[in-house]
Amino acid sequence: MRTIGYVLIILFNIFLLSACNSSNVNSSDHPSSKSDVVANHTNEPLSEEVKVEEKPSKDIITLIPSGWRVLIQDDEPVTTEGDLNKDGVTDVAMIIEQLQPNTEEAPERSLLIAFGTNDSYLLSIIADKVILKSDEGGVWGDPFESLSIDRGSVVVSDYGGSNWRWYNKYRFRFQDNEWYLIGATMGEYFSGNATQEEADEQDYNLLTGDYIIKKTNEDGKMTTERGNRGKRQLIKLKDFNIENM
Questions:
Q1: Cα–Cα distance between 18 and 39 in angstroms, integer?
Q2: pLDDT tens, residue by residue, 177-228
Q3: Contact status, residue 149 vs residue 84, Cβ threshold 8 Å
């Protein structure tokens, strides 16, 4: 079980992870929704065993590293669109998952973000420590809940646990030619006598320093604390590690 008391760790104890270099490809379509699509990335040649779908979306798929594929959830690829760098052109974020045909271990997952141009995509980042694996949600199962673009930011949401449920939401924004964590929401509640609306929750706006802390007592009464802890140095997406949460 994850506790919301760990929220401060995200602000101070982030380990360095690797990010991938940018590359150009030609297309603006999405991968097929029901196929195990894999592709090569930048300088890695496509192996003879790995095939790329011959569909209009094949060029954007070439942003994906060899041996990985777009995560499929509810028979749909986990991708989302929006303008992330404020140039008026649609950009794309997606969750990718490593292929592991010969192991029982849950495959690694990563967040891939690409900027759109008039006739191609430019890879911005592949962040390896943002997305939980399918076996990290406890009794609940796969903890990945959603990927979205909201108000120019990429938002990743998780949900898991058993009797005690936990949820997290992280907001990343591109500014000053870099990706940063600008918001974090972390909550937990006991499902035997509470709902998510009654959860203990901490919500931080890392741009302004504003925070909202909600707590529900044994009688079901919720208290809300609002404050500002001051602006602090933002955490870069390339340094973000969800395991420190």
A1: 19
A2: 999 999 999 999 999 888 899 999 999 999 999 999 999 887 878 999 999 9
A3: yes
